[in-house]
Amino acid sequence: MDAAAYLRHKQHFLDLLELDATAREQALQRLATDEPELAAALRRQLAANETPVALLDQPAAGAPPQVAHYQLLRELGRGGMGQVWLAERRLGEAAQLVALKQILHSHWNAEDQRRFEREIRILAALEHPHIAPLVDAGTDANGAPFLATAYIEGERLDRHCEQHGLNLAARVQLFCQLADAVAYAHRQWIVHRDIKPSNILVSSDGNVRLLDFGIARLLREDAITASGASQLTLRYAAPEQLQADAGAGVGSDIYSLGVVLYELISGRSPYGEAKESKALVAAILSQEPLPPSQAGARRGINRDLDAICLKALRKDPAQRYLSAEALLGDLQRWLRGEAVEARRGERGYRLRSTLRQYWPWLAAAAAAALFFAFHLYRVQRQLDETQRERDKARAVATFFQELFNAANPGETRAGEISAQELLRRSSRRLLEEGDTVFGMGEDARANMLAAAARVMAKQGLNNEAESLYKRALALWQPLPQPPEDDITDALHELGVIAYARGDYAGALALEQQAIQRRTDLGDDDSYFLGVLYGNASVYRLMLGDREGSRADLRRAAGVLRANLPGSRANYAVTLSSLGMTELYRGAAAQGHAYLLEARAQNGQLVPERTAGRLQIERGIAASLRELRRDAEAEAAYAKVLADARAFYGDTHVEVARILHSQLQLYLLRRDWPRALAVIEETRALETRLQAQNNPRLLSLQADRARVHLGRGEFREAEALLAPVIAGRGSERAVESASVDAERAALAYARCRLAASAQTHDSLAAAVVALRERPPLPYAGLAQAEGWLADCGVRVVAAAARD
Questions:
Q1: pLDDT over threshold 80, residue 13
Q2: Selection from 134, 121, 138, 101 nearest residue 209 by Cα
Q3: Which end of the chain is more exposed for a tag (fewer CB within 10 A), N or C?
Q4: Measured on CA atoms in the order 308, 314, 320, 324, is the torsion positive or negative?
Q5: What's phi and psi for 117, nearest 5 deg?
């Protein structure tokens, strides 16, 4: 039996399982009229399925698994070889709802166990907000393997869209979350192979979650079966998955995404009325689907969306989108009203798209002669750009070919070569032999080097990425018409690399070069320019130039505001940074206003950027603290801390940052017991995150010393603060205000122990530094000035006694 026939048989079997006894018998009688042998085989299989089979001393099929620390609540579903339970996982007092999956005891064999163990490895490697994460895995009391993933309370994607009456744009935005999750999995070398609505849920917070990697395949491993036809679902299968001699790769997931997208936007199947298995197989293999705009009645589906969907559904995998990221990029362009890559090559398409988008501004220029000249210019530019894009695509493809050429087959089979080592080898060859080996022009070679650099940087190979970017710039800059977008992007990425090394001056210089090139071209309002100003502000802040950082942030905000809605994510981040800058200046009310606007902008993003939201909420809590709205600040800290733990887990640096910010509230309120409790909790977390050379541990020790100061325990405060000051190395400029505050605290403790002119002078020097760079909490400056006055009185009194 070939893969397609087997898949038809399996689909009939699964469909019959869903029916009651009467409907099942009627369906079998209808099938027996045309295919009596298939009907007879299905009767035998259904009868066998209802007969329990004991496997040695293992429990019968369908028996609930017995797993330590888990309480099974109810069955969520079952398939041909496994079942899924809703379970409660208990560890001490903590409880968590999970989906517990296990192979049916009477069905599993060595191959099934290998597939199940591979699913566990795959899920363990995935960490993405739109993929249900692995929680636990192991074996039950009878030795059968199980895995547990986070339980997602939600609706199937298609049903969610229908029940909530979502419009076309909202449906596409949800689908973009799914495409982003699939793209992430592909970057981890994982192909899902069973993308369908029942594996896609929309959770109560409105976010998509991709489930069930049970038949997913690691691209760098051998497949367990040749085609996986025994596992996948026919309606969403790609043509190559129905052919016994064809493998299922990235293109198969692209096709399945295309089917889901088609149904989501049109409300119809791309295969029309074909529902019976034989007709479905024929349609998948040979029938070209109608454009979605012609298949369904939903309004708003234009030719661009038709082209995107049909490109994903092409029969030949090589003619589909080459990656899920490319599909995602086209859908995002459609949402923004921009030209889509799926229609690249259509004569006049780019021009029509531009005219449609900017018609109100071009109406005044409709004179025939000017329009004709403009048309010719645009066509020529389009041809030039098409040629350059073709060269860029060839360059990138050459890089990836070279990447795999760098692998020794023996090492690859033995698993002795890592992805990073593979990247390093290809990087060396690109730099050493690239000018003579690849036979392409300077522009294309530079694009190949830049593509390689981006991959290196993502993998943390900054030295290799820096060398490749510099070589690309050396090729681009002498060209008669240098590609300014690519050059400024390379300068920007080099700045990011310098920042990661702590070279803030170098990072700022590179970012300023990029800004200068943009402004020399007359660019004063592009989205990219806003990003450049935003990065420059961060580098200035690291160098201690607070006012320069604030000025750059204001420029970035103005440019990004002009580019809404496309720039909304960066605009929200910039507003948040502006808010924190105002807090450091002591303008708490202004900072609070900026942070509230940042929250509003971030809330409009689909999907909302949760990490950005948590940083904004931490800033809002700090602004409420600075405004001395203590009750509101305490509630805000409690909520953002709970949200951060739910999103990141309990052991994440963002949780530590929130705790430390919350600690400052208790110190301001002189609530010493709660301050000490948070200090202990934060110290334990910081030690787990980075046990050695963690400067935040020194800050916590200084905070504990402030508790002693507040209690009048000056000798204990001095004992803690002296090693803090000694342990401070070359601090970042942005942290120097905190160090000045620690010096002030140490000087005051010593003044209270033995008032002298020397302790007074040390305290005065620290206060002068704090006036130039106030710390957070801003009230720390007023406290230090109070210490100085008190110390002065004590010095005078001591002199009088002497």
A1: no
A2: 134
A3: C
A4: positive
A5: -65, -35
> Please, what is the end-to-end C-alpha distance for the chain in angstroms?
107
For 154-338, CATH number out of 1.10.510.10, 3.30.420.40, 3.40.50.360, 3.40.50.970 equals 1.10.510.10
Can you give the pTM of this predicted structure? 0.47
Q: Residue 454's pLDDT is what?
A: 82
- The number of beta carbons lying within 10 Å of the beta carbon of residue 364 is 7
Tell me the C-alpha distance between 642 and 654, whole Å. 12
CB atoms within 10 A of CB 409: 7
The residues, ordered by sequence, that sit 6+ positions from 226 with a Cβ below 8 Å of its Cβ are 3, 244, 245, 247
311 labelled ligand-binding: no
Consecutive H or E run containing 530? helix 527-542
Residues with Cβ within 8 Å of residue 364, at least 6 apart in sequence: none
For residues 651 and 685, the answer to whether their CB atoms sit within 8 Å is yes
CATH number for region 70-150: 3.30.200.20
Long-range contacts of 607-614 (CB under 8 A, 24+ apart): 607/129, 607/130, 607/173, 607/177, 607/206, 607/207, 607/208, 609/569, 609/572, 610/129, 610/647, 611/647, 611/654, 612/569, 612/572, 612/573, 612/576, 613/643, 614/640, 614/643, 614/644, 614/647, 614/654, 614/658
What are the structural domain ranges in the chain? 3-49, 70-150, 154-338, 376-482, 696-801
DSSP state letter for 4: H
The answer to whether 138 and 67 have CB atoms below 8 angstroms apart is yes
Distance CA 24, CA 17 (A): 8
pLDDT in tens, 602-648: 999 888 788 889 999 999 999 999 999 999 999 999 999 999 999 98
Rounded Cα gap, residues 232 and 194, in angstroms: 5
Distance of CA 525 to the CA centre of its chain: 27
Cα distances from 685 to residues 650, 651, 681, in angstroms, run 8, 6, 6
At 197 the pLDDT is 92
Task: Give the CATH number of domain 696-801.
Answer: 1.25.40
The token duo for 27 is 């369906």
User: Do residues 193 and 217 lie in contact, with contact meaning Cβ atoms separated by under 8 Å?
Assistant: yes
Name every residue whose Cβ is closer than 8 Å to that of residue 629 and which is 6 or more positions away in sequence: none
